[in-house]
Amino acid sequence: MPALQAHVASTSDYIALLKPRVMSLVVFTALVGYVMAPGAGDAVLGFASVLAIAVGAGASGALNMWYDADIDAKMARTMARPIPSGAVAPEEALALGLALSVFAVLTMALAANVLAACLLAFTIFFYAVVYTMWLKRRTPQNIVIGGLAGALPPAIAWAAKMDALALDPLLLVAIIFFWTPPHFWALSLLRADEYKAAGVPMLPVTHGPAETRKQILLYSCILAPLALAPVATGLAGPLYGAIAAAGGAAFLYFAWRVARSDAPKHARALFFFSILYLFTLFAALPAERLIGLIAR
């Protein structure tokens, strides 16, 4: 790791520790989970619950950056992060991550209920310990198993509102879970050399690009029909169904192009489309409720 510079950390440095881009996706899917849970809910409870989930995501990001600072220093994509760049000391990131974790879980317990707080605590632990400290450096299945942490926010928010879980929030979790491997493997195809140099056993490094492209298509074939399941349970209606069908077909097309060709442009196109796909899919759920296509 580069020597730490004499530098007073700025607010933006600490914000960067929280992985704001990842946090934005977490907040969005959590908000959808809260809105789609039955009943009108309470605005204050909803705000406090989503805030706790956002802070928990930020805490996970800080703990991840603390532990992975040595890896981040070796990769062009991450070497400018606060710790390897010398902007923030590792012990500061650790302290921030731990403090925010406690704050997030306690806030959830006090504002919502113990079930939601336990799910949030499990999510932070799973990302920071199971994924970051164990899976990431040991198995090419790191993204597959570790993806559970990023998939849980809709269920946490649902539990915060209902003090219970049901099939519908678990379907939302499953959609994100099966979306995660093709999304990140598309990126890993573009960054395989960096992962190899950093010693991270991503699938393109351990099994090669051809197998990775095959696995991307396989997971996409599971994801596309799975995304239609909320229509069958009544959580979603015709607008969501149309978007899920069209988006799923497009996702399969992009994945098929990746499977057939090693051209980087196809992996890059899938990576960016996958973000649009998930956002559109989840946005359709509250949109249907707003325009009265479904009532729950």
What features would you describe in this structure?
The protein has 296 residues and is mainly α. It folds into 2 domains: 7-165, Tetracycline Repressor, domain 2 (Orthogonal Bundle); 166-296, Four Helix Bundle (Hemerythrin (Met), subunit A). The protein has helices at 11-17, 20-36, 43-67, 69-72, 90-111, 114-135, 142-151, 153-162, 167-190, 192-198, 203-206, 208-226, 229-233, 238-260, 264-290. α2 packs across α8 (153-162), α3 runs antiparallel to α8 (153-162) and α12 runs antiparallel to α14 (238-260). The longest helix is centred in the last third of the chain and has 27 residues, at 264-290. The model is unreliable at 1-6 (pLDDT under 50).
